[in-house]
Specification:
single chain; 261 residues; alpha/beta; Rossmann fold; 7 helices; 9 strands; binds 6-phosphogluconic acid
Length: 261
């Protein structure tokens, strides 16, 4: 079942990152209070990393029990371990190296020189198995019920490494696939598919900057998910678009309340 998107528009991308970090702290603390642990799916890109940096700078980050948090990734650039362009490398720099996570619960996607070899499809299948092993059997889904899954939105409406019209966005069975020929470098990537994304309780889409205005307008105005992958990203209980004013500048005003701008 799809949940209608809710929109929150912030003054600028710095405030958006700080407010999203505060929101994430609260969600994680609440999930840990009610279920003992929390699971969050991280995104690559400037907005996702901006949020992590804001979280690192927030004094309230100490409210999180970092040892009871599972981290997963929505997508990864298929590059060697430690490559500065890998999403996990950037997340480590922005936040992860500064907090006491349980390394066993940091589920990075495979690297191109990792134990699964340089075949991206084999590496993607291995990540799907890792997700399936962590899923709660009583939920009958092949991935965990992530508490929050974050996605940066690209100017062409891509999310994770689901690009318009490419095979990955059409996938209806597998939860993780290899991507070949992505228009955003590097061309070879691993990504969660839309069915895996939709298993999350909450999906948050992050869009800041003028170059995201058209993408937000298209995805929020009834576009199809094959042409506009962001339109197909929704959570089971909540779908939240977190925007700055520039990214919201082309949205019809009735889509979001005046008060949030
Ligand atoms: O690895 C990646 O490149 C991504 O995960 C990608 O989907 C990203 O999130 C968007 O392109 C938005 O990126 P920005 O926030 O930098 O605009």
């Amino acid at each position: 079942m799809s949940t209608a998107p809710q929109l929150v528009v912030h003054r600028d991308k710095e405030l958006m990152a700080q407010a999203a970090a505060a929101r994430l702290i609260t969600r994680i603390v609440d999930a840990q209070a009610s279920r003992g642990s929390a699971s969050v799916v991280l995104t690559g890109g400037r907005n996702g990393n901006g949020l992590l940096a804001a979280l690192a700078a927030a004094p309230a980050r100490d409210a999180i029990d970092w040892s009871r948090l599972d981290l997963w990734w929505g997508d990864e650039r298929f590059l060697p371990e430690g490559d500065p362009e890998r999403n996990v490398t950037q997340a480590r720099e922005a936040l992860l190296d500064a907090v006491p996570l349980d390394p066993e619960r940091v589920h990075a996607m495979p690297a191109s020189d990792g134990p699964h070899g340089s075949d991206v499809d084999t590496a993607a299948a291995a990540y799907a198995e890792e997700l399936a092993a962590a899923a709660d059997p009583s939920h009958h889904t092949p991935v965990p019920s992530f508490d929050v899954l974050m996605l940066g939105v690209g100017p062409d409406t891509h999310v994770a490494s689901l690009f318009p019209e490419l095979p990955a966005v059409r996938e209806t069975e597998r939860t993780v696939v290899g991507v070949h020929g992505a228009p955003k470098p590097p061309p070879t990537r691993i990504t969660l598919t839309l069915p895996a994304i939709r298993a999350a309780r909450e999906v948050w889409l992050l869009a800041a900057g003028e170059d995201k205005a058209e993408a937000a307008e298209i995805a929020l105005s009834g576009a199809g998910e094959i042409q506009s992958p962001a339109a197909g990203a929704y959570g089971r209980t909540r779908t939240l678009w977190l925007l700055d004013k520039a990214a919201a500048s082309q949205l019809p005003r009735q889509l979001y309340p005046q008060a949030s701008a």
